Structure formats: structure tokens, C-alpha cells
Amino acid sequence: MKKGQMIVGVISCLIASMSWGAMFPVADHALEYINPFYFSIIRYGAVSIVLIVLLWMKEGKEAFHLEGKGRLLVFFGIMAFTVYNVLVFLGQMLLGKAGVMVASIMEALMPIISIAILWGYKHVKPRKYMIISMIIAFVGTLFVITKGDMTFFLTLKNSIFPIAFIFLGVVGWVIYTMGGQSFPNWSTLRYSTLTCVFGTFVTGIITIILTMLGLVSAPSVGTISYIKYDLVFMAVLPGIVALLSWNYGVKILSSINGILFINFVPITTLIIMMIQGYKITIFDIVGTLLVIAALIQNNLCQRKEENQKSQMLQDEQMQKVV
Q1: Are 274 and 280 spatial neighbours (Cβ–Cβ below 8 Å)?
Q2: Region 77-99 average pLDDT
Q3: How far apart are CA 96 and CA 30, in angstroms?
Q4: What's the predicted TM-score (pTM) here?
């Protein structure tokens, strides 16, 4: 990999992660006036239109051919733009102000979740250092969620569903990120556009059904106008910019290296909330640092392991030549 290309990949992942870190405090304000279903439709409906225009202009109508991968595109689209976007913000809304940090710290668990998925789905047993990282990250997450108050577990029934929603949403995004490997010959713009369109369409169908059943209500024009700046921000930075930057950065750096930048999500959220005057507890800070330390340790160990394997292959090739 060329140095310039690597720098572009690093910057891309950094932009995406910092955008997502800023996403939760902004969403916290918007979710006071709009439910997560319509919030996701309006946000990614606008993103889908922009991406369709960009893809058409750059790659032409041929880029919209599914090439027999329609089911995969729908599945990964649902994971990212239905499961992730609806459930994460639904959980955040139900938790109230505390949901901002909980949702953010859950994002930082993505590398650990990816390890668990590979273990359960592909039976790739994690190394010892991976298990240690998972435990440390889990403890850090508990610090942020409980704020050090162990009586939290006595009232868990009041928070179990919101936390479960956020966790399932994050799992959905991990699956979406891993799904990009199934389209190695596709451009970042093409994969992002088609999955976004399919996922948003499914979200729209679900939202219409829920509205007809009276379970959710459509926002008024006045409500949308009141939170218009929140919606614009969410569509542009955490939406278009972060989506394209993330998929492009991961494609360059690989998922192992790219996903390390998720560490900047809780850091960015923490800084923004401190500026906003939200009372950050020592448990928020310690918990966030524990998760970040666990992920860095896990990533460094993975790199060391890869370097050792690479060196072994080189030694074997040299021996064959000799």
C-alpha cells in the first residue's frame, strides 16, 4: 500500500468516526420532537436521493444493475439502515440523556462484536488476548451504563430493552461493515448507495405499517421545521460524508485496521457533551478509557500476529528458493 493511499484511508476513517461521535448529542435534541422511525426515514431518504444522483453521474445507469446480488444488498441494507439506525436511536431515546453516552460507548464495542460474530458464525475461535479485550471492554461499558451504581441491576428491567436495542443496532452495523467484503469489485459509492436505498425503503414500509396501527405518529411540518438543522447535520455529516468515508477507508485499510478508528466515537461524544455542560462522571471517563484501551490492545496484538505470520511465510519462501 502506498503511503499516500494509507493516509487517505486514515483520514477517511477518522472523519467518519468523529462524525458519528457528534451524531449522538445532535440526535438527542431531535429525538425530543420526532420518533426514531421518521427520524431515520427523513434523514436517509434525503441521503438516498443524493447518493443516487452521485452514482448516476459518476458510474451511469449500469451501476444500478444488481448482478444477482440483490438479496445480499437488501440484507446488508436492512442491517445498516433499518436495524442500526432505528434501534440505536430508539434505545437512546428511551434512556434519555444517559442514552447519548451509552449509545456512543456501544459503538466502540464494534471490533469486539466482530470477533464474537466470527466465533459464532464461522467458528473462528478468538485468541486469548481477544477474550481479555472483550472482558475489559465489557467492564468499561458497565461503568458507563451503571455510573458505578450497582443498584442499577435491581432496576435493570427498566433499562434492559433500550440497552438491548442499542446493542442489536450496533451488531447490525458490524454485519454491514463485514458485508462490504462481499463486493470487492464494486466502488464504495455503489455499495453505499444501493444498500442505503434498499435499507431505507424497508424502514419506510415498516414505518407506514406502524403508523397505520397507531403505534407511531408522523411529525408535523412545524416539527420538521423546528429540527431542520439537526436533520441537515445528520444527513450530511453522519449520513453522506461518514457513510462514504467509512466504506472507503475500510476498503483501503482493511476492516481490522479501519475499525480501530471507532475509538474516536466515544471520545468525540464525551468532548461535545462536556462543552454542552452535561455532567460527566468519573465512571464515564474511566469506562470510556477502558473500552479504548481494550480495543487498542486487541488491535496491536492482531497486527503483531499478522506480522509474525507474514514473516513465517517469507522465511518459508526463502527456504524453498535456497
Answers
A1: yes
A2: 92
A3: 12
A4: 0.80
- Number of Cα atoms under 13 Å in the Cβ half of residue 166: 26
pLDDT recorded at residue 152: 60
187 φ/ψ angles, rounded to the nearest 5 degrees: -75, 160
The answer to whether 168 and 103 have CB atoms below 8 angstroms apart is: no
Grid cell for residue 203: 424502514
Between the alpha carbon of residue 207 and those of residues 48, 140, 201, 212, 249, the distances in Å are: 17, 35, 10, 9, 32
Task: Supply the mean pLDDT for the chain.
Answer: 85
**Residues 64-85: tens digit of each pLDDT:** 999 999 999 999 999 999 999 9
Give dist(CA 224, CA 226) in Å, integer.
5
- The Cα 232–Cα 69 span in angstroms is 32
CA torsion through residues 131, 136, 137, 143, sign: positive
Who contacts 161 (Cβ-Cβ below 8 Å, separation ≥6)? 91, 94
Dump pLDDT digits (tens) for 136-148. Answer: 877 887 787 677 7
